[in-house]
Amino acid sequence: MPHSTGERHKINYIMFLCIGLLVLLPFLFLTLYNHPQADDFGFAVRDMTYGFWETQVNYYMNWTGRYFSTTTAFQINPVIYGNFDRYKVYSLLLILLLVVSTCLFLHKLLQRHFNVLKTLALAALLLCLYLMQLPSVSEGMFWLPGYLTYQLPNIMLLLLLALLISFFRTGSSNYKVLYVAFAALLCVAVVGSNEMSIVMAFTTILFILYHNRNDRQNRLYLLCLFILCVVAILAAVLAPGNYARMEEHPNASKPLWATIYAAFLTVLSFYRWLAPILVASVLYVIYWGLPLADKTKASSFFEVNLRLSLCHYIVTLFLMQFAFTWAVGERPTPRVENVIYFFFVFGWFYNVQVALTKYAHLLQAERRLSPILPLAVMFLFILQVFAIDGNIATAYTDLLSGKATAYNSALNQRYAYLKESDCDTCSLAPLPAIPKTLYFMDVVEGEENSSFWVNIDYADYWSKSAVYLTAPNPEIKDNVTTLREAGKELIGN
């Protein structure tokens, strides 16, 4: 009987891997159709026109304190060299790096308790949850400035945590110095990426430092890491450019308004995102949570004060919302929410495990559960992952309906026209289709709108006086409509 139970669970773990693979596949294939857009062209013109240090000083003094994004990340923009194929490769590498960093973090955390199959299955579960509700897929995985500023720091934070896990487990002082040094570099990079990541890095390192305050062997290392984190935060937050930029937002710098609004948005985030996570939590408890709780009675990673852990989670979510509402006076944009949702998912499951470690003895009924319950929950989870208007179904629809192909072909034709034509004020045909997964922002229609910033950047990049669309781009259609039209076209042919 134990053998059959183990085999049944093994099949379930393999099923999680299969679901994860099905979730990733459309995004990986869509990178073949990805193209630069919006700020990509403006940043390329900037980096081709001004020197490196001139650009960094100007941005730091007049626009933003995101020193890592402006000094390092944006310098790899392949649009500078007219290499649009490399643009596709970068988005592919970003997705793969997200997968690898998640797997590596979980492997470091759980290698003493789970085999590779179970760890990869858990990574698949978390990635499914993250991708299925990612607030902006295009800005989070396909638009280079968006993912370098808001997705890359998520990846770096996972790597930072993996290094700290290795730091705690090694007994060598030399290795401890090495792990903390690399963690410090990643921390500086994360802090210099965006304001949400500043909050996430600061509260997480503070949480780790406080939890290990009585650990004499490691306390000094962690204190040094924390001090460096604070110095990096001061460099990013006190940049004159931040305050110059805030002057453009009339509702910025209103503490009472920002506090109330951030509290409301924190509560709203649970309403928006929690339902699929609760379903996945049932699966997590059955296949990972309770078995892990039984094995980690002496593990300091989960034997933490539950109230402290929940406080860290809620306060961090609130401060991330507050940072944006205070600086801008408005609700965080989707690309900013990509970071908030990342912490929401990973922080939620950490707290679930902390609670299970403390109260697992009250949940021993799992061993008497009918196999029908996990199968029913699994079925419900699959329905949520592949919901018709969800991110995963949209990615498949963009890919299989021909939207991505038409989008790719039209943009290649546009580049050829702008490169070969001697037009000074150039009219461009609208895109034939808009794949929601890939699309963020394009040139707008009408010669009277040539002064729109995307049009200006486009014109400057292609050495034209002005560019505009002859007609508006089509609206993004819902998946049911897209599939119905694609089916009619297929039958008609």
Would you give an account of this structure?
With 493 residues, the chain is mostly helical. The protein is built from 21 helices and two strands. Among the domains are: 249-386, no CATH class; 398-492, no CATH class. A two-stranded parallel sheet has the order 1-2. Helix 20 (453-461) links the parallel strand 1 (425-428) and strand 2 (466-469). Pfam families: DUF6056. InterPro entries: DUF6056 (IPR045691). Keywords: Membrane, Transmembrane, Transmembrane helix.
Helix content: over 70%
Q: H/E series, N to C?
A: HHHHHHHHHHHHHHHHHHHEHEH
Terminus-to-terminus distance: 56 Å
Q: What fraction of the residues are assigned to beta strands by DSSP?
A: under 5%
C-alpha geometry: globular
Count of distinct strands: 2
Our Rg estimate from Cα atoms comes to 24 Å
Number of H- or I-type helical stretches: 21
**Unreliable residue stretches:** 1-5
Mean pLDDT: 90
Output the strand order for the largest sheet.
1-2
Helix-strand category: mainly alpha
